[in-house]
Amino acid sequence: MPILLPFHKSILEEIHDPATSDLLILARGLGLRRTICTLMQIYDSKQSLILLLNASPEEETAIGDELGIMGCRRPGLRIVGYEMGKRDRQDLYKNGGLISVTSRILIVDMLQSDIPTELITGLIVLHAEKVTALSLEAFIVRLYREKNKAGFLKAFSDQPEHITSGLSPLKNIMKELQLRRVHIYPRFHEDVKNTLETRKADVIELYQRLTEPMEAIHHAIVQCMTITLSELKRSNKTLELDDLNVESAYFRSFDAVVRRQLDPVWHKVGPRTKQLVGDLAMLRRLLTYLLSYDALAFHAYLETLVASNTTTVTGAAKQHQSPWMLTDAANIIFSTAKRRCYVLTAPKPTSSVPESQVIDVEDEDAWAALDEAHGLTGSNSRDNGKKKEEKKPWVPDNMSPVLEELPKWDLLADVLQEIEEELMRQEAVSSRPPTRGTNTVLVMTSSPRSSTLVSEFLGEMDGTAPKGSRGRSMMERKLRTYLYWKGQNARQKQPRYQQPPRFSVPQPQSSSQPEGEISEALKRKDKTRQERSANRRRVRGGAPMTVAPSKPAVVDPKVESRDDGDDIAAFLASQPSDLLVSSDADALLLETLLSSEAEIDFDTHYGLLAPSQTVVVRAYTDDTDDQILAELQPRFIVMFEPNLDFVRRIEVYRNSNPGMGVRVYFMVYQFCCEEHKYLAGLRREKESFEKLIKERGSMLLPIFEDKHAGKSDAVIKTISTRLAGGRKELSTVPSQVIVDMREFRSTLPSLLHASGLLVIPATLTVGDYILTPDICVERKSIPDLVASFNSGRLYTQCELMSVHYKQPILLIEFEENKSFSLETVAESAKSYAKPTSKYPAKKSTGPTDSDRAPPSIQSKLVLLVLHFPRVRIIWSSSPYGTADIFNDLKANAFEPDPNRAIAIGAEEDTEAGAGINAAAEELLRCLPGVTAKNVKYVMNKVGSVRELCELDRKGVQGILGVEPGNACYDFMHRGERNTGV
Fold this sequence. Notes:
The chain is an alpha/beta fold.
């Protein structure tokens, strides 16, 4: 059972009272889950009904396990899922206790009165920073407070950075949750500070410098980010992007901030701006991958990045490429990443004999210097000969593997060696084992991929090898897999790669490249560009000169990588087949190891190894790390990558175990984004808490009123001019709207309830919203609209609405603060693009790109309207606009019947259009004399349109009447009369 620290007790003393409702904002890593579980343990009783909201499935499982450890086992925390039936949920609610339920299930149960809202003791809401006016949690709180004024509500959050954007964000959250008290506990709070500084862990900070190639790549990536960000600001001067800098680009929230500012004008920005927004996210990921991926994985990722950026799925050249790839910094990234893996030592065919001799001498000196740096002694000639003898048969002859290892790997090996020596020293000094804690070493990384990589290194590490080569066997295995992957890709794409690259300036290549029609066109294009550049220089006063390719360094890594693939494919083709099979087996083995090596190894040896021989490698998660620390009780913790939250968890863990000595190794790359990101995150959290404290000091608390009380005119529904000159007709039925169950994923039902409408959930077969007995609405968001058109589901839905309702409506709803347009600049500018070539375009005999392109959404909507002329389309810019439109449509109209709405279109309703051909009915409506009033009567008299046409004049007059019958008969037999003449 976890021990409560003094500041935990002070928090519980302030918020445990059931008579009050509170919002608690706690710094991450200070034990928020421990506080919530203790509070739920206090409230655990069969006489009370406590609901846990907004918890993820992982959090539900972890909270249930911790409550079980604390003694809440009978029955403990029950979880309501989608597989639980309605009657089972009702019985569960009546029995009381601690229940975790999703917001979507709870809102439906509250609207259908399946849960006694007035008997709910209290609500516990997690992730309060996500609560907005559009969220289901705000809807639940409104329904909760309508019928239950005495129950409490406790909200919790550990993300202060998310409550700082916008105008009065803290007040908005408290307004939606209807709270009036907030408690803020940052790390610098007096109680927290006094508690955690009582006992401090032994922290050893290890600052590791990057290797020279990694420093060059890191500097180049930051330079590309600066260029991309400045280009984005330059092309969008109307937006407020001044506060965005490279430091803020280290965090994932940066992408959301940039996209949120561009969303209102997303349909106006060009494809270049959209490409820049995506490039910023890509470059941020590259910084992370540089420090966490091995050299081969990082190089392979860069190669896939180049391939996806230069060619489309069909193999054609991509039009809008990333601008950062056309810079000199990009050349540094690609070439240096390749040199970290291997070096091609084959001499160039144009090199002279003396130059080749000089290069050979330099290579021998380089090998000698490398041997000297590694501490190898002896004859250089013998060592070199040994190296040549030990060269793997699957390595191409012109390739010299470098296989640079991450600097932290050697540092981790040294740390583990130091920990082992410390344990041996402690055993020699004292024969008794330590009373508190175990000798298990806990290594924490930033991601599961990093954990797998560290586990592989520790499993295959050669302790006798010099620094920088301890993971050589692992890297050679990865190189073998990489070569097989590279050769397979080159073989599959050989026809495409035989042509010169169309995405860049052509350079003179080997004579093996075919001289086809495309290469001739590229030569003419290059010649035209050179002439144009020479003329421009001549105008500026410079002498005309032959222009070299503007950025040869940019093309080199791309072309060179393709040459590498061709060489590797040719080498593998010349080797025996068992080499390829072995490589394929290695690839499959690698995939298996990546997926299950750690789990299998842990399950096999758990309980058989002594704690001093166990090294546990895990990735940072959430509050589950507190439970891991409490279970493992490690005395040695290695933070392979810095994490602010885990630092606080170690502080809480150290103070929760007074008699235990804890040593922490804090490893961080110096002078790079890892150190900057850690410090920037610490500063962001501190500034966020300061803003929240300042807002709390000057916040105006709203006065909550019952919106449904005191409305004397609520029962006045319709105004009829036929009743005594327009007197008001009274109706006791409240204004209501019937909503399909599946629509509670959206935010519209919450806004409809907030606007004063009674929301009735039901399982509808036809439509999503029933406003009146005659108005049925099918709501579509933009992604849903596209998917419905592609699957054909929208045609069926419109057909059903047209059959059963007089006024079928298709509502197309856009998201709030996003572009209210279906058209993009990129689509409309294609046909108006001005030709840049001075040669006239050739006439194409085949279909153009626009002819081959699929029809647009606008054209599909036109076809839909032509097929269903009674369907009306309503465009809404946001859910708020939709709520206003629904209120206007319901004005002066009768209320819908839920039972009838559920029965329409259901299988058990035999009278609702069963067995009727909708197309034949639509044809029947088009005949003269047939109206909407008598169409059902006609369909009951005749079985088909053919039967109606075969009737004589008197038969048609007997069904439709004399004049309508004559008109219908003459229309149907007009052609026969002409034929008879």
